[in-house]
Amino acid sequence: MAAAARTKSSDRAGVIKKLLPLAKKHYKVALPPTDLPVVETMLFSVCLENSSVEAARAAYDRLFAVYPDLNEARVSSITELQDVFSSLSDSDWRAFRCRRVLQYVFDRSFAFEMESLRKKTLELGVKQLAKIKQLTPFVRAYTLHVAIGAHLVPLDDSSRGFLSWLGLVPREGSLEEAGESLKSLVRKSEAETFCASIRCLAVDPNLAPAFTEDAAKTDSSAGDAASAIERLEQLMKIGAEKYLAQAAKAAAAAEEKVAKAAKPAKKVVKAAEDKAAPKTKAAPKKAAPASADDKKKATKPPPKPAKAEKAAKPAPAKKKAAPKKPARSTKS
């Protein structure tokens, strides 16, 4: 993935210049409310993180419909509060942060009011909100941006993922650092519109799967600012599923091409090594030592030759019978 940190500022500025009209063309960009009291601003930012402005408004309205008295929400369990945020991701964590904000504010002044934050400098405001340990970087930056009017670019995980895919911010590092890197490109008066526009794209369910860290591993063009707008238009046209399938196929083809190119090179190197290596005669192989059975066979005398069978004696010839002599006649 191309490193956004090495992308020229002029290239990033060019991407932002084309990005905002593109978002306005395809989405009805809704701006979050900026006239809420400080405590309510923090509660709204808890709803807004990693979600659309419309979904955040619905959850925020539901919170005050279920708990018109914020003290009831302060003493409620996480499970009870979680139902308010059931339409949003990480509903349990949102319930936990919401209750923690109410507990901190009430324990500090015995009232759900924190308007004194508006009179503080950015440095003092950062220190005060840092005392609420469970707040995320996005909630702190959003609250300071709205309440104090500080020149900040509040980013959550979804926004940073989208911007890193474009090549505008690095994926590594903190959210504060990513937002800080955009301050020179986004003017203070445009920060609100900029954040609302990129939020429309970042949380779009048809596009968001392409902006994850795992997806970036298979998309070799992710993070390339030079092709950012072209890639975004293609993604919006075919959707994340087809886009990632094509990216994976292209990555596999590239790997196969590299592997094929490496094979002849290996053969050339091997042939050169064989040619450079001195030829040595192979030493005669030593006979393997004889085993005990072989030794016994070697010392054993050879077997005696089998005795020839005695020649069969010829059967004795039968004697011819002697001719009978005629009987003598007696004279009377």
Keywords:
332 residues, mainly alpha, Endonuclease III, domain 1, 14 helices, 55% helix, 0% strand, elongated, disordered N terminus
Describe the model.
With 332 residues, the chain is mostly helical. It has a single domain, classed as Orthogonal Bundle (Endonuclease III, domain 1). It is 55% helix and 0% strand. The chain contains 14 helices and no strands. It has helices at 9-26, 38-48, 53-66, 70-74, 78-82, 91-109, 122-129, 137-147, 157-166, 175-180, 191-202, 213-218, 228-276, 292-299.
Compact summary:
The protein is mainly α. 55% of the residues lie in helices and 0% in strands.
Number of domains: 1
The total strand number stands at: 0
Radius of gyration: 47 Å
The CATH top-level class label: Mainly Alpha
Question: CATH homologous superfamily?
Answer: Hypothetical protein, domain 2
CATH second-level architecture: Orthogonal Bundle
Q: Could you say which structural class the secondary elements and strand pairing correspond to?
A: mainly alpha
Percent helix among the residues? Answer: 40-55%
Termini, distance in Å? Answer: 158 Å
The succession of helices and strands, N to C, reads HHHHHHHHHHHHHH
Question: What is the percentage of strand-forming residues?
Answer: under 5%
User: What's the main sheet like?
Assistant: none
